[in-house]
Amino acid sequence: MVPFQSYLLRCLPVMLGMALISCAAPPRIIDKKRPPQKADYVMYEWYDDTGPGKVAININLSEQRARYTRGGRDIGWSYVATGKEGYGTPSGRYSITEKIVDKHSNRYGWIEDEWGNVTNGDAKPSTAVPAGERYVPAPMPYWMRLTSYGIGMHAGIIPKPGEAASHGCIRLPKELAPVLFESVNVGTPVTITH
């Protein structure tokens, strides 16, 4: 037998083994165009035992988090989005004075074209509306009023957990807002601190 053929015959089992191993696991394809997905934030936890005691809410502006208690027992926490720069959420002691399931802002909204595309995402009722477009007041579902001048808690977008983003209101995670709304009453205390 020719030395080269002998060499091939000895290498054949090794090459066959490598080929079979490469079939066992699909190749890992790395897409360099898309960054890896970040883990989703846990936006809230709710574990109310509905036992004795009244609900109280504590909002920390520095952390952008709320803590919920019933009779002094922790019943949950959530991220919130409070007033961004120039629209600060005031600290202090408040109580819920009004509850409305389906409220819309009389101060803020957006302008959209006839197809529903937003052309101005930060408009006021006084903002000039181009022909063929319309002003849409911002929805504030599960509204819980805290002040006479328009500050309250409601379901809303929390674009970056831990960062302020609103015009002064306290935005709550959309899934938590109806649960909290049903758990509080007019008179529920809300403390806002830095």
TrEMBL record:
Any one of the GO BP annotations: peptidoglycan-protein cross-linking
Database matches in SUPFAM superfamilies: L,D-transpeptidase catalytic domain-like
Domain L,D-TPase catalytic residues, every copy: 55-193
PROSITE patterns: LD_TPASE
UniProt-listed InterPro entries: LD-transpeptidase (IPR050979), LD_TPept_cat_dom (IPR005490), Transpep_catalytic_dom (IPR038063)
GO cellular component: extracellular region
Pathway note: Cell wall biogenesis; peptidoglycan biosynthesis
The entry's keywords: Cell shape, Cell wall biogenesis/degradation, Peptidoglycan synthesis, Signal, Transferase
Signal peptide: 1-24
Superkingdom assignment: Bacteria
Keyword field contains Chloroplast: no
Active site (UniProt): 154, 169
Listed GO MF terms: peptidoglycan L,D-transpeptidase activity; transferase activity
Stretches that traverse the bilayer: none
Family the UniProt entry places it in: Belongs to the YkuD family.
PANTHER family listed in its UniProt record: L,D-TRANSPEPTIDASE, L,D-TRANSPEPTIDASE YCIB-RELATED
Name this polypeptide is given: L,D-transpeptidase family protein
